[in-house]
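Sequence in, structure out. Go.
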Amino acid sequence: MTAKQIVLRARLDARTTGLFACLLACGACEKQADLGSIGDGPASILWRGTFEPGNLSEWTGDGEGGTYTQNVDMKSSATTAMAHSGRYSGLIAIAPTASMTSTSYLYRNQPSPAAGYYSAWFYVPSSITVGSWLSLTHFSGSQTGDGKNLFALWDVNLYALPGGGLAAQLYDYVHQVNLQQPAPVSVPLDAWVQFEVLLSKATGATGEVTVWQDGTLILQRSGVATVPNDWLQWDAGGASTNILPTPAYIYMDDAAISLIRLGTGS
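Output:
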């Protein structure tokens, strides 16, 4: 089983909680190098991914990011078929079969601030039917703190509402808690929607994970341990065990990692 398979199966694996607790005992977070000069915006914007080069070089070119696919033949790519701004966006394909998770993520290991805002715009066509969940943005940790032996920490995914439509929920792998909105805000289909996540690193009960949808606060976990050590990977794209049609295509654009909340005006 690959490390990413472990990440995805951790949703149903209570051993993740015990593993995280053991790792917390190993020590607190250490600061990484200041990466404020990365990116093309002001100092508070550490990194951007616009797809405007017409490829994935913003994600992969500096060696601090990459792509990961599982159970899907089509790789992520830049496309002119749809765009939130400019000419290009990222095309994400997933194709689960027999309840086997299909994954297509772009990821960044750096920059990794002590408290960072991770945002991206997504376009989910109304032709897609989500049977179980559709992950859009995900965070992984490293058991050894060096990017090896990955396991899941947090996941923002969409689920089907009883009356129709989709809403976002936050899965906390650390404490095996699925956080749903008391009054779910529907995710627009056939339209661009922004999800922005604040992740404040903490190995003790002082961390925070907060999620905004189109500028509206929808989910929050505060006063909790959020990471076992300073190493953190952010994944954005798509993953699911049950979605139709197969393959299903979604789009992503204007991703960013920042020290301040960008909101929908970014």
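Check: Helices lie at 3-9, 15-24, 57-60. The chain has one domain: 3-258.
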